[in-house]
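Annex B. Sample input.
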Amino acid sequence: MAVENFVGGAEMRYTSRGLRRRRDTDKWKVILSHKDPVTGKAVTTYHTIEADSRPYNPTKLGKEFSAFCKMNGFDCTFHDLRHTFATMMIGQGTDIRTVADWL
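Annex B, continued. Sample output.
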């Protein structure tokens, strides 16, 4: 009979063959808390992770985004989203230095 514990996002299982560690592959987000540079309040960001619990590769994310855009007829790159964000923030009156800090 196995006894299960969860430590640091991983399942620790004691079996007849010894201690086994297995990451929880059902989780697709790692939540990291940090402070917003403008308000100083805690902000939660989500980083997707692969099914085997490795951090998601940014290059792969860009390639998948490009494939999605191409498949749906969008002429857009992942980097264009950064420019769009900055343009929208400045358009809403956000200080350029603040926008630069966010980027």
